[in-house]
From TrEMBL:
GO terms for cellular component: cytoplasm. This is Dihydroorotase. It is an enzyme of class 3 (hydrolase). Residues 57-241 form the Dihydroorotase catalytic domain. Binds 2 Zn(2+) ions per subunit. SUPFAM superfamilies: Composite domain of metallo-dependent hydrolases (SSF51338), Metallo-dependent hydrolases (SSF51556). Residues 450-459 have a biased composition (Basic and acidic residues). Residues 450-473 are annotated as: Disordered.
Length: 473
């Protein structure tokens, strides 16, 4: 019998909506019990491994339903192996690679190959998303039942929208048959026309063509109408506009089977980053604005960074459950893909290793509660791809993440395991770091000698969260 006791952490169980300071006792790779600090025994007997989690949070392993791993076809940007390494460093124990590979994941053997390659590299769950159409061309429906039988956990042409409404309707009908959601990248190509940034005053000033909010909302509205009519399962990828949140909110209220996700960047950055300023953080931490210049291609992402009103609406949607999940849209690209004019740069941010500190800024500024946030990184996404239950209760698998909300680290190319170094946060100091990731009792990532000796920290994990940016002013 193997026993591990994770001591003195703040254990968050989003399924039970609890945060308990105390010990998490693991036995034979499963949770045995959670013991509150005051009730913890002086000794757990012999043959026990201790991990000191003082000042840290202990949560279920994070789940990312929107990850780009680039294999096969674009291994220079990322491989399944390097993506998995980045995942565990970011606290993720389940990731869902998107099918915009080459060839795209539009057949059962290609889906099975993802599982095979991942299994050779490590034990975390890599649950691929199959393409909606052959070659992601939007013209011919892929064999969705076969893809689901091979293990695809959802369907998407991400990177591109399912622009043909008839095909979208067919896919939604198949989603009922397979129980897997259609995850659409909502972008009306006839409105967006390849524009590289949000439409508005900033785009005008920079002389870049704009992607209006309507370019996203028109397709969200269409898809909701189709989901309502078919009864299919619709998931909206990377919602980025206030109007998009409102469409999903209203649809959910009518009982439409729709879910939504939001990225860490759309929750914490605006289109002013393209101008070289760092709204909403300008002048009040946590970032150093001297590291960013106008037209920095690392700010190009699809959908684009929007306005502060959109950011506020996304946070409100995440809090009230309109948005079910935080998803990274981890989009690794090479230096060459970004070293060009703004309009030619490949869109996307490296995300797996930066997601946690980015979204923790929302907790630190008291815009969302930590238990709610963790819920959107665990049980929220789990429900979308149907991998429940996720919890840290008795007999649940010991699949968990331990992070220190106050640890400070600098984003450098060397600090990231991902091949993708493309982030406008390069060079910044981040607050919050994953210390240990465990998959079914096995430690798959551990930072240095974390937890090996008693750290005797002042204050618990919760105390470290509040008002951190005010203090520094
Ligand atoms: O910014 C993005 N990058 N958005 C997408 O939809 C696709 C992704 C990619 O694959 O690089
Ligand atoms: Zn997308």
């Amino acid at each position: 019998m193997s026993r591990i006791v994770i001591k003195n952490g703040c254990i968050i169980d989003p399924a039970r909506k609890t945060a308990t300071v105390g010990d998490l006792v693991l036995e034979n790779n499963r949770v045995r019990e959670v013991i509150e600090l005051a009730m913890a025994p002086d000794s757990y007997g012999d043959d026990v491994e201790f991990i000191d989690a003082s000042g840290c949070f202990v949560t279920p392993g994070f789940i990312d339903i929107h990850t780009h791993l680039r294999e096969p076809g674009f291994e220079g940007k990322e491989t399944i192996a390097t993506g998995m390494d980045a995942a565990v460093r970011g606290g993720y124990t389940t990731i869902c690679p998107m099918p915009n590979t080459n060839p795209s994941l539009d057949s059962a053997p290609l889906i099975r190959q993802q599982f095979d390659i991942a299994a050779r590299h490590g034990p975390i769950h890599v649950l691929p998303i199959g393409a909606v159409t052959l070659g992601r061309e939007g013209k011919v429906l892929a064999p969705l039942v076969e893809l689901a039988e091979a293990g695809a956990h959802g369907f998407s042409d991400d990177g591109s929208p399912v622009w043909d409404a008839h095909i979208m309707r067919q896919a939604l009908l198949y989603s009922k048959m397979t129980g897997r959601p259609v995850m659409n990248h909502c972008e009306d190509l006839s409105i967006v026309r390849g524009a590289p940034m949000n439409e508005g005053a900033v785009a005008t000033r920079l002389g870049l063509s704009g992607w209006p909010a309507a370019g996203e909302e028109v397709m969200i509205a269409r898809d909701i109408a189709l989901a309502e009519e078919t009864g299919g399962r619709l998931h909206i990828c990377h919602v980025s506009t206030a109007g998009g949140v409102e469409l999903i909110r209203a649809a959910k209220a009518r009982g439409v089977r729709v879910t939504g996700e939001v990225t860490p960047h759309h929750l914490t950055m605006t289109d002013r980053w393209v101008l070289g300023s760092m709204e909403p953080w300008d002048g009040k931490g946590p970032y150093d604005p001297s590291q960013l210049a106008p037209y920095d291609t690392r700010t190009r992402v699809s959908p684009p960074l929007r306005t502060s009103e959109d950011v506020a609406a996304l946070i409100a949607g995440l809090r009230d459950g309109t948005i079910d999940a935080v998803a990274t849209d981890h989009a690794p690209h090479t230096h060459v893909d970004k070293e060009c004019e703004y309009g030619f740069a490949s869109p996307g941010f490296t995300g797996l290793e930066l997601a946690l500190p980015m979204v923790l800024t929302l907790v630190q500024t008291m815009q969302i509660d930590i238990v709610e946030l963790i819920s959107r990184m665990t049980i929220g996404p789990a429900a979308i791809i149907d991998v429940l239950p996720i919890s840290l209760g008795p007999n649940d698998p010991a699949t968990l993440t331990i992070f220190d909300p106050a640890a400070i680290w600098k984003v450098t190319p060397e600090a990231l395991a991902s091949k993708g170094k493309n982030s406008p946060l390069m060079g910044q100091e981040m607050r919050g770091q994953v210390m240990l990731t465990m998959m079914e009792g096995q430690i798959v990532y551990r930072r240095e000698q974390f937890g090996e000796s008693s750290r005797r920290e002042h204050g618990g994990a919760v105390g470290k969260l509040s008002g951190v940016f005010d203090e520094e002013e």
